[in-house]
Amino acid sequence: MADLSDCPSASGDGLLPVELHAWMLMLAATGAVEQELRTVVKERLDVSHDEFLILCLLAADPGEALRMTRIAELLGRPKTRLTYQIACLQHAGLVTRKSVRDDRRGVEVALTEKARGLLKEASGVLAETVKEALARFMGPAQRQAMCALMPDFAGEAAPE
């Protein structure tokens, strides 16, 4: 994978407005990080990356359930694909799903204790994978911008 900080248009002197250029660099960096994270997620949690994203949404507020329509909205996924992924997670014992009390058509999904334990156990390795990959794929200006989102990222030095 290429070092994105060496991108020829990183100076912002190209045809794209600075906001669009920054967005494209962010997408490229997150795509590279996602590729590395896929392997670790599969090894540690034995789920696909898309299933991992669902678990992460549910882990943001582990005591609460989310409606499937909201999960589909947040991930930008079709509801039919989400239904399959939720079924896989349910079969693995990582989520529960139940009908919404006041809406027969609504379905809520929540983490199980098993999923909470797996996420807690794997979170350190997953976070380190993200930080290391970001340090490799982002130049100094991009790392500085990322520090506002991830304060722990500030201490990471890019490998030489």
Structure description:
It is a single chain. This protein is mainly alpha-helical. The protein has one domain (4-152): Orthogonal Bundle (Arc Repressor Mutant, subunit A), CATH 1.10.10. The chain contains six helices and three strands. Helix 1 (18-45) crosses helix 5. Mean pLDDT is 82; it is low at 1-10.
Set out the fold topology.
Layout: H1 18-45, H2 49-59, E1 66-67, H3 68-75, H4 79-91, E2 95-100, E3 103-111, H5 113-137, H6 140-147
Antiparallel strand pairs: 1-3, 2-3
Distance between the termini: 15 Å
Radius of gyration: 18 Å
Please tell me what the overall shape is.
Answer: globular
Helix/strand order: HHEHHEEHH
Which structural class matches the secondary elements?
A: mainly alpha
Under CATH, the homologous superfamily reads Winged helix-like DNA-binding domain superfamily/Winged helix DNA-binding domain
**Strand order within the widest sheet?**
1-3-2
